[in-house]
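Note to self: the last two entries modelled the partners one at a time, which told us nothing about the interface. This time every component goes in together.
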Amino acid sequence: MLEDRHLELTKNGKGFILFGSLFVIVGLAIDNFLLIIPGIFLLLVISSIFANFLLTQKAQIITELRISKKYMRSRGLLAVSAKLTNDSNKVVRLKVTLRFSYHFRTIETPEQVFLELKPQESRTLVWILIGVRRGNAEVGPIEMHMGPFQYLFKQSRIVKLVEYIKVLPQRPRINIPWKTKKELLLKMVHEFAKRVKGRGDEFFALRDYMPGDEVKHIDWYATARHDKLITKEFEDERNLHFLIYLDLGSTMFGPKFEYALSSVVELSSLIQGTNHDLAVIAYADNVSRFIVPQVGKNELKLMLNLFDIEASGVESNFINAIKFTRSNQLLHSIAIIFSDLEGDLKTKLQGLHLLKTMGSRVIFVNFSTMGFNILASPDQIIDQAQSMEYKDIVETVFPSLVQDDYKAREKEARQILYSVGGDFIEMRGYEDNIILSLYRLMKKYSPSQRLIQQALRR
Amino acid sequence: MRFTDKVFEEDWEKKSLETQKFSPVLLAHHLFGIIAIGIILAQSVLSLNIYVFTIWLIIGLVILLIDLSKGNKLDLSSELIFGFFFILGTALSLLLGNFASMFFPDSLGRIEIILFQVSAGTCVVLRFILSLYYIEFSTQEGFYIIPASKHSKEQLQHYQDNLVLTDFERRKINDDKFLKKWQFIIQKMFWPLIIILILVLIAVAYSFIIYFIIPNDAIAELVIRPSLVVIAILYSVLLIRTHAILPKVVSQKDEPNENEISEEATEVYSEDEEEISKELG
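The predicted structure of the combined assembly is written out below.
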């Protein structure tokens, strides 16, 4: 156990000494008890603090810090227990403070607790913390303040016990059944992949044996039935290549970015279990991360790698991500772009036609700013509403001001996307889910829907 | 620019643990200040000195206004300001009034002066004590959040239920109740009050020595008083020196850290590697 002891007479404490001596000396000089009595009292307070320090100097307090888990979801709960044992013969009264990083907040109890420990007594303190932010968080160290009048004389012990926890993005609120997920994938395969025969695993048809065919593919039951050599034919693997582009630009921030990231993780965890390929490209002004999740032992590690992505403050430039895609020959893929419509739209959507020439399908997922949080700079709206409260302005006036502009932007984005044969999905808050949105999109492509549309056109 | 997370704010409510807005301690604190000033004013009225009266009236009003403007927020700086005004008032009334003892012993007996001064000084000390204990309580303030929606309440309840019979089981920390806190205050105030009593007795005894046993004696003026002044100076120097001697940070190392060991090992390894690479050319 590492322990640091801090001892310090604060400014107020020094003031007490100064005033005490001044009161006493002046009082004695002029025979004024009005000053002598308070002066001696001030000096006594300081003396009692020094005496207390000398008495409790040797009191040992053994501390153990434990946390309930190493990985947790944001908005999840974490229990932290600290066991304190008084290893001395004196009664110790102390203030225990648990320090933790900005990723947490305490529930129901403040982070500081006042305790009285009898000799050889041990007590366990349990804090329940809620993870409010994603990232590499830490819990600890524990600070113990002993003795009275901490604002005069700081006598603290810092037990250097630190536990590291990884706070992952929050759990999606909607649980989607596996059946729906499977159906979505099947629909995507049906729409985006072509049925080609070749060297796959899936059975395609039976046919007569031709010289040169592999002997291991001969279907012996069928041969026996028809009295001639018959061989199996296989379908080519119909796997899709998913490319997920995640925008780390300056406009993606806060809860919006967190939700985009957790959507990426949700989608990639869906794809990972199947025979489809997946790659995640996180880009800002350049490609900052290229992650290809793998099957096997490293899978979890790579998924956790995905959780480490942080939004950068610079403006994003999509064309660089496209260039990266082209140089790595990631052709014929389904490109799903997680971004928003803030900032300069042209740089955000520049290069979509290049994706089309590479034979890719584009799906643009817009995380609408207004659905997730409200953005406001006070200077902008201060002229419009002098008398309203700031909270009201933020919640009512500002969204209505930007709504029209937002609609125009959405229209522009849709036009650009439809010109390259892409699709547009809008995420309007925590209630929306990426898989459900994709499912809704794929329904548009279903044969029955198509027939209806054709009939309508006639 | 700011952004809010509506969902989180709906689920969890921010709370703060605050000291009582109106407490008897606070009221008594202000009251003792007023009483102390009142006693001095009464004394100056009885000693028939208009300068002393005016000065203390102004200072009393200033202190009262400071107390009122601070409201329920007590801090040490305001107490130190209070002390500063006392010294200022004494110095001014000495300059404008009677240089020898601030009041006029002709119209007011010496014993009466001593009694007035001792009672005013005791009031000031009581005020200091009350403010010290009030500040002790105000350091217990802190922030936390509580579940506000049904979803978050259930989440917390389920989590706590799962932790029952583990090391993380949450037991209620026996926070002191109101009466117990008061009991603690009274217990803590017992010894200071006795010390004040002793102080007052010593002061009275000292005054008797000065005024009755050795009146107008050279020993009192030249030996006892200067020696007490020197003792006071020496004691405050001693306190300051004690503070200077104490080390600011004392770190105790019981066991060597595992990480440090591994780091050392890698360093040695890398040095070896460098040497080898140098030898190779």
